[in-house]
């Protein structure tokens, strides 16, 4: 393995004229199309990665708007009818002095989605502009986005459990609102956006001039 | 020189490493980005199989027994996991019912089934088939989409929301589901993708 002098003599599979399988880690000749070990399709870099990232991200952002505007929960309690949005639910929990749970819901349904939109956009822009700074931090950020994204689903599950549980005829009943669907879609779209991102692109920037 | 078995590439940054064999219990990390490349644990395959099988049966218990019971002023209502899913089955929320059912019931069950199917021939020492490879590929693809552990946290949040309104009692399914989440997390730390794919490789000697 002849070091080419950059990044402490490390060499990528692509520079060595090889292609790596992302699923099983095996290395093949560059012209091999399908991994002989796990039968995954081989790509040196995921094709049109950034284009897919942006498309799913925009779809996720669009769905995030109705998710916050329309009611998530529709509560009927002793004749009184109330509809609450995601943010309204958090305020409600704080009125009940359930600050811990209010924080969980606020973080899972507002902070994480918004943070994810910004993180994915930042990663995509940094790759497009070929930034060479903070590669390790950006790679950690990508790991965090991939790991944390699914947790936004909490609020959808809360709505599901509440509406199944609280069906006590005239006393109290809780039903899901239209925002539950929009929110679930927004989470799924951003998960797909994060999955379309090929982290190898982050590390390619300081090699572009060397190869 | 077809498959270069003496090389291993990092799935996150494409850096090539020479594929040294590891001592028992050791992990290999990428020198550039720090991702775990593989870990060596001779008992891993049997443990993964055992955990997947126990999770599968717990899952069946978790969806068939009552999950939670709520009572207020003499009226009570209990729900199973299926009931939570069916809450969305009216009118415009029907697609959501399907999605929630997928995330908390069908995808986790499918993933466990696929893992059992793929790992059983490895544990019994018979030759892995092409179908076993497809099954493990499916299990890997389903990983981010099986959300049982997130559902449990959702239950905790929901409980606090109703706590002031009514009395809540846990059914047996709740405990089955909680145990399931612990087992799944444990199983995920044991799985070494590289080793399993290598074991599933039919072309090796």
From TrEMBL, chain A:
It is found in: Cell inner membrane. Its main location: membrane. The chain crosses the membrane at residues 53-74, 98-127, 148-168, 174-192. Keywords: Cell inner membrane, Cell membrane, Membrane, Transmembrane, Transmembrane helix. GO terms for cellular component: plasma membrane. It holds the Pfam family PqiA. This is Paraquat-inducible protein A.
TrEMBL record, chain B:
The chain crosses the membrane at residues 44-68, 174-196. It holds the Pfam family PqiA. It comes from the Bacteria. Keywords: Membrane, Transmembrane, Transmembrane helix. InterPro entries: PqiA-like. This is Paraquat-inducible protein A.
């Amino acid at each position: 393995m002849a070091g080419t002098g950059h990044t402490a003599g490390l060499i990528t599979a692509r520079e060595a004229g090889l292609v790596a399988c992302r699923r099983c880690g095996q290395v093949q000749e560059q012209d091999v199309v399908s991994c002989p070990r796990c039968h995954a399709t081989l790509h040196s870099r995921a094709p049109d990665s950034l284009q897919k990232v942006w498309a799913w991200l925009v779809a996720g952002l669009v769905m995030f708007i109705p998710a916050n505007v329309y009611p998530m929960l529709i509560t009927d309690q002793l004749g009184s009818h109330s509809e609450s949005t995601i943010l309204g639910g958090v305020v409600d929990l704080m009125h009940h002095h359930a600050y811990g749970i209010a924080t969980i819901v606020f973080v899972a349904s507002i902070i994480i989605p918004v943070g994810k939109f910004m993180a994915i956009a930042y990663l995509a822009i940094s790759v497009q502009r070929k930034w060479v700074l903070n590669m390790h931090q950006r790679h950690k950020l990508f790991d965090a986005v991939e790991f944390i994204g699914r947790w936004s689903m909490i609020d959808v599950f809360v709505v599901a459990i509440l509406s199944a549980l609280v069906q006590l005829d005239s006393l109290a009943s809780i039903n899901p609102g239209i925002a539950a669907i929009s929110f679930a879609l927004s989470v799924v779209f951003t998960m797909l956006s994060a999955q379309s991102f090929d982290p190898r692109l982050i590390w390619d920037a300081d090699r572009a001039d060397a190869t | 020189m077809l498959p270069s078995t003496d090389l291993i590439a990092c799935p996150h940054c494409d850096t090539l490493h020479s594929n040294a064999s590891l001592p028992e219990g050791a992990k290999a990390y990428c020198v550039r980005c720090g991702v775990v490349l593989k870990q060596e644990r001779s008992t891993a395959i049997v443990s993964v199989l055992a955990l997947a099988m126990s999770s599968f049966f717990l899952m069946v218990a978790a969806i068939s027994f009552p999950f939670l019971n709520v009572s207020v002023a003499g009226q009570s209502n209990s729900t199973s996991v299926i009931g939570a899913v069916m809450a969305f089955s009216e009118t415009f929320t029907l697609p959501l019912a399907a999605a929630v059912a997928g995330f908390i019931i069908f995808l986790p069950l499918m993933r466990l089934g696929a893992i059992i199917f793929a790992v059983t021939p490895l544990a019994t020492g018979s030759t892995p088939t092409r179908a076993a490879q497809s099954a493990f590929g499916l299990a890997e693809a389903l990983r981010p989409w099986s959300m049982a552990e997130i559902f449990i946290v959702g239950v905790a949040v929901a409980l606090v929301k109703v706590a002031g309104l009514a009395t809540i009692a846990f059914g047996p399914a709740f405990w089955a589901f909680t145990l399931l989440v612990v087992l799944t997390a444990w199983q995920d730390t044991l799985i070494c993708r590289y080793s399993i794919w290598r074991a599933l490789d039919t072309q090796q000697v």
